[in-house]
Amino acid sequence: NMHSNRHVLALTAYCNVATMYGVSPVGLKPDFSKVTYGGGGKGPGIQSMEGITDEQRAILQNIAWETVSKYPYTGVTKAK
Fold first, then answer.
1. Hey, CA dihedral for 35, 37, 39, 55, is it positive or negative?
2. Are 47 and 36 in contact (CB under 8 A)?
3. Phi, psi of 33 (to 5 degrees)
4. Mean pLDDT for the chain?
5. Residue 1: its pLDDT value, please?
6. Are 26 and 67 in contact (CB under 8 A)?
7. Residue-by-residue DSSP string for the chain
8. HSE-up (13 A, CA, CB side) for residue 77
9. Are 64 and 14 in contact (CB under 8 A)?
10. Calpha distance 29→14 (Å, rounded)
């Protein structure tokens, strides 16, 4: 769905995990099936976080970890 933000929201969640806990989100399998977003304003209404494939999840988790672990201000390193 071109109008979906679910991938950006998942990426944000993985970055938050990496930053707050100092661990890689790679390999986590969160259950987004009951998570919804949107519904306000002119958008498409309430959207589900369901529909992220395993392949997409792995890509997003790797992007999150690479970004957080290489950004010095997070205090997170790959050694953790």
1. negative
2. yes
3. -60, -25
4. 87
5. 46
6. no
7. -TT--HHHHHHHHHHHHHHHH-S--TT-----TT-EEE-STTSS-EEESTT--HHHHHHHHHHHHHHHHH-GGG---TT-
8. 1
9. yes
10. 11
